[in-house]
Amino acid sequence: MYLLDTLREGLAELDSRGLRRHRRIAETACAAHMRVDGREIVGFASNDYLGLAAHPALAAAVAEGAERYGAGSGGSHLLGGHSRAHAQLEQTLAAFCGGFVDAPRALSFCTGYMANVATLTALAGRGTTLYSDALNHASLIDGARLSRADVQIYPHADTDALAAMLDASDAGVKLIVTDGVFSMDGNVAPLATLLALAERHGAWLVVDDAHGFGVLGPQGRGVVAELALRSPHLVYICTFGKAAGVAGAAVIAHETVIEWLVQRARAYIFTTASPPAVAHAVSASLELIRGDEGETRRAHLRALIERTRAMLRASHWQPVDSHTAIQPLVIGDNETTLALAARFDAEGLWVPAIRPPTVPVGTSRLRISLSAGHSFDDLARLENALSRIEAGGNA
């Protein structure tokens, strides 16, 4: 059949360029040590930065939430699906993360992707100019495209270039959009300068802190709190499927911004609310994140990060200067990157190969993702495998 043949040809082209993606099957809970595709491995692939995904307290909270609220929400947030668990989570989040703005309010979403698309399409539109960092996550890119705004891409973290673009703009509404921590490089956006530009030009600053929430800032309140930023121009987005160990996301901003999203964000209005049991578990996760256990886990993670940075600086390849749990090692071409990932896999280490279009062409990399669930013995195993691979020894 012609239509299937065109797809087969496209898949064959992906194969020829080393770009086809493959799923692996995890047979145990997400953790530093897992059983994947029938083998025991040490995983450096997940975003479970605090090692909470398999925490007994969160598993118990999911069960408790399901017992109290059932398996599903049954409807959209505006048509019966907004439970007491959702409301409590939003109130807690506004108090926990909303110190950057007067009258903070939070709005929960099923996924971070949905939160980003909802926010950008509701705040931007025809006649709006949206300024997006060149390395923003795909969800921000898609939200920008769907917003119908005039989208201008500024070079990664280049605030001088962005300032020139803003100076040249006569748009009535402007949005500056950035990751807080960039998911493939692990570096932190220059948020203080971005906020100064937003205030000077009367623009919104939308920060997707998917990889900073729970890890950075006092009590894990994220990158905005770490930098002690405060402004009504800020719109903060955090997700719960990474450091929080559960699922979902939230937008936190001035109460007027949130009310506008409730009225105009199609990705919020026209979808079934997440199961209340999930929101109940996220509330339990916040208790861990902001408590003594969360601080202990963040301290251990920081020590792991510094040890990994030293390890990668001594390698043959090019590490990215990251002070976060995302520790990339840039290899370059797709084939070599895939071959190295396979060598690590043979050693029982899951170190994923990241290739275009996720990263720019010529910058394929191994993305080492650290978790507080890792031990220094796990890092020693990774370092020994890296040394053998660099030396060309048998894997």
SSE blueprint:
Elements: H1 2-16, E1 33-36, E2 39-43, H2 56-69, H3 77-81, H4 84-97, E3 104-109, H5 112-123, E4 128-133, H6 138-147, E5 150-154, H7 159-167, E6 173-179, H8 191-201, E7 204-208, H9 223-226, E8 234-239, E9 249-254, H10 255-264, H11 266-269, H12 276-290, H13 292-313, E10 318-319, E11 326-332, H14 334-346, E12 349-350, E13 353-354, E14 364-369, H15 376-391
Parallel strand pairs: 2-12, 4-5, 4-6, 6-7, 7-8
Antiparallel strand pairs: 1-2, 3-9, 8-9, 10-11, 11-14, 13-14
Helix pairs in contact: 2-12, 4-12, 5-6, 7-8, 12-13
How would you explain this protein's 3D organization?
With 395 residues, the chain is of the alpha/beta class. It has two domains: 123 residues, Aspartate Aminotransferase, domain 1 (Alpha-Beta Complex), CATH 3.90.1150.10; 235 residues, 3-Layer(aba) Sandwich (Aspartate Aminotransferase, domain 2). The protein is built from 15 helices and 14 strands. Strands 3-9-8-7-6-4-5 form a seven-stranded mixed β-sheet, sandwiched between helices. Strands 10-11-14-13 form a four-stranded antiparallel β-sheet. The longest helix has 22 residues. The protein starts with a helix and ends with a helix.
